[in-house]
Design brief:
Two copies of one chain form a homodimer. With 211 residues, chain A is an alpha/beta fold. Chain A is built from nine helices and ten strands. In chain A, strand 6, helix 8 and strand 7 form a beta-alpha-beta unit. Chains A and B meet through helix 1, helix 5, strand 7, strand 9 and helix 9 of A and helix 1, helix 5, strand 7, strand 9 and helix 9 of B.
Chain lengths: 211, 211
C-alpha cells in the first residue's frame, strides 16, 4: 500500500467512527469519498484492492468496515503515546480530546523543569526526563511526540531511539531522521515544522495552481 | 519547481538565517545538505537549476544566498498571519517565537468567546470573530491559521475565502479543500491533522522500510 492510500484509509476509518457515533449503520462509497476528500471511484478502487465488498443495496455495513480497516491499521496493538516537552504545544496536546476516538491515548508527559513536573494540575502524569526509559517500558509506549525546543530535540530523540521507541512525531524545528537498525529504517519519524508549512504557503500563493 | 525542491529551498533558507545569526559568512553545499537532510549533490543540483554559483574556494556567501533564496520565496511580500480560534493550540502558536526569524508575524487572533477576546493577557491583540474581515483588510493579512473545533472549521474557512485570504494552515480535523476562483485553485490550503499523523505512524511501524 502506498502512502496516499494509507492516508485515505486512515481518513475512511476516522469518518466511519464518527458516523457510527452519530448512530448510522450503513454508508455509501460517496459518503466516505466526501469525508476523505476524494472521488467515490477511488474509495471503490481502494476497497477492491483490500477485498472489501459492499452489498448491492444500502452500501457498506459500518461496523464491518471499521473492523476490517481497523485490523489493516493495526488497531489491536497498544496505542500509548508520550509527550516529551510540556511547554505550550506539549500541554495543548496533553489536553486534546480528539485522539480518543482513534484509540490513541496520551499516557504521560516528560519535562526537564521541576516546576513543570511537580505541578499536579496536568490532565495526565508528568515525569522528569530522567524517568523516560522506565515509563516507556512500564506503560508499553511505542510512539513519542517531541515538543521540546530546538536545542534539546536531537538529545531527546537519541534517548528515545535507545529506549527502543518505534515512532516519533516531531514538532521541533530540527529535522529528525530515522536510523538504520537491523537493516530497517527506524524509528518511523514524521516531522511537522509549522514555520516551514507557513513558508511553503507563502511561496505557493505566488503561483496558484490551475483548477 | 516541484514541491520537494520547494521544501528543500525553505530549509536551506532557514539554515542560512541560523548560520548568519551565529556569525558565519560562508557556507559549503555539504553544510546546507546536513541542515536540510539531503546530500550535497542535491544542494548543488538545486543551486545549478536556480543559477546560483559558488566560488571555487570557501563556498557560498551566506548573505548573497539569503537574498537570492529570499527573493525566490517571495520574502518581499507582507507575511502577516492571523490565528482563528484561541484555544490551547491557537494560544501556543500566538506565543511561539520561532516564526520571527523567517519573517512571519502572527499579528492577531480571533475567537467567538467574549471571555477570550476580552482577556488582555494575550501577547497579540485578540478580536471577536465579527471583526475578521475588517482586520484582514486593515492589516494586509494573506494567511490564516485555523485552530477552531471541528464543528466551526467549515464556516470559518468559508468566511476566510470570502474575505479573499490567500493561504490557510488548518489544524482542525476537517480536511479543507481549495475552491476554483478565476480558474485557479484558491486559497492554498495545508491541512495538518495531528491525530491522522499519529494513526499513520502506528500503521507504518508495523511495516518498517528497508534501509
Amino acid at each position: 500500500m502506498n502512502s496516499d492510500m494509507l492516508v485515505r484509509i486512515t481518513r475512511y476509518y476516522r469518518a466511519l467512527n464518527r458516523l457510527r457515533s452519530i448512530g448510522l449503520e450503513k454508508v455509501f462509497a460517496h459518503n466516505l469519498a466526501d469525508a476523505a476528500g476524494v472521488s467515490a471511484a477511488i474509495v471503490r478502487k481502494d476497497f477492491s484492492i483490500l477485498e472489501i465488498h459492499g452489498q448491492k443495496r444500502g452500501g457498506y455495513e459500518i461496523v464491518e468496515l471499521i473492523a476490517k480497516l481497523g485490523s489493516i491499521l493495526g488497531k489491536g496493538n497498544p496505542q500509548n503515546v508520550i509527550v516529551i516537552g510540556c511547554g505550550r504545544i506539549g500541554k495543548a496536546l496533553m489536553h486534546y480530546s480528539g485522539f480518543e476516538p482513534d484509540g490513541i491515548r496520551i499516557v504521560a508527559g516528560f519535562d526537564s523543569d521541576p516546576l513543570v513536573y511537580s505541578d499536579a494540575s496536568h490532565p495526565i502524569p508528568v515525569y522528569p526526563l530522567s524517568r523516560l526509559e522506565e515509563v516507556i517500558e512500564a506503560m508499553d509506549v511505542n510512539v513519542a511526540i517531541i515538543t521540546v525546543p530546538e536545542s534539546s530535540a536531537a538529545d531527546c530523540y537519541q534517548r528515545l531511539v535507545e529506549a527502543n521507541i518505534q515512532g516519533v512525531l516531531n514538532f521541533s524545528p530540527v529535522t529528525l531522521k530515522p536510523q538504520v537498525i537491523d537493516g530497517k529504517l527506524r524509528p518511523v519519524v514524521h516531522n511537522i515544522n509549522i514555520a516551514l508549512e507557513l513558508e511553503q504557503i507563502f511561496y505557493e500563493i505566488q503561483y496558484p495552481k490551475e483548477a
